[in-house]
Amino acid sequence: QVHASVVGAGFDIATYLEARKVIVEKALDESLPVMHENAREITESMRYSLMAGGKRIRPALCLAAAELFGGQAAIAAAMPTAVALEMIHTMSLIHDDLPAMDNDDLRRGKPTNHVLYGEPLAILAGDALLSTSFEHVAAHTKGVPAERVVDVLRRLGTCVGAVGLAGGQAMDIKCEADPNVSLDDLTWIHTHKTAALLQASVACGAILGGASAADVRALETYALKIGLAFQVADDILDVTATSEELGKTAGKDLTMDKTTYPKLLGLEKSKQVAEEMIADAKRALEPYGDKGAALAALADFIIGRKN
Ligand code: GRG
């Protein structure tokens, strides 16, 4: 039903995301002024990764959730949080690319932060982006009751911590090359490493738009499912992209030690699981009818994306 209403309304997700990207990138660009000459290099390093492209999915989720409950007016109220979410995401990517973690030289087709600025500055730029995210919400959120802003700050903190991004990454590292990783372990990693920030994105947007606690929970269910689907789709893409390149049936993830959904369930079953997760996500939006169109379209986009 929700899906049909999106299509029926001629909702074009690419146009929608591009329009959101424009207003989000303007806010991101304004969020990091050079505050002191001695801080020029670290600020440039932060800005380099923050402005290096990306789909801006987390801000889009946050703004869509805010608009669902608070209308157009809520977009301005949620923008500082949308910026903060992208700062947190960027921090996680900078740290994920470090030699101590994934040791990647390229991100979004560009040199990674530590390749350009050196490892010490990349670590510090990540730390500074994380702390600036909280500062940005506290300093710039306008027209929202203080207890809602505190709730947002608490949720941002939780989603980065030991039962969020950091914990998910720690478990991922622990499970790397472990041949006995279970589907439950994998789901725990995906839930914390990926879904937690997506859940915080919609929950914070909803809270800033004036949503009730029950509405926030419904949107968290939606975001958990799209986060899990996102990760399964990613694993599938890894396999299929490599298969096409190599002209073989088995891709790199099926031959590597790392446990993935396709490795545990096979490609077809994994595709089915991802589709079921997206259906579950959209089911959580059913109470909102046409108003949930943007979030429903974002769910489809996540599983259908090609990059
Ligand atoms: C330092 C406190 C602290 C935490 C960081 C490194 C780390 C701990 C966590 C890693 C988190 C991570 C890299 C998760 C993967 C998330 C993911 C799905 C990234 C891809 O997101 P997209 O597709 O990327 O939205 P773009 O490029 O579009 O922004």
UniProtKB/TrEMBL annotation:
GO BP terms in the entry: isoprenoid biosynthetic process
GO molecular function: metal ion binding; prenyltransferase activity
Coiled coil: none
InterPro entries: Isoprenoid_synthase_dom_sf, Polyprenyl_synt, Polyprenyl_synt_CS, Prenyl_diphosphate_synthase
Cellular component terms (Gene Ontology): cytoplasm
Cofactors required: Mg(2+)
Entry keyword set: Isoprene biosynthesis, Magnesium, Metal-binding, Transferase
Family: Belongs to the FPP/GGPP synthase family.
The name this protein goes by in its record: Geranylgeranyl diphosphate synthase
Lineage: Eukaryota, Haptista, Haptophyta, Pavlovophyceae, Pavlovales
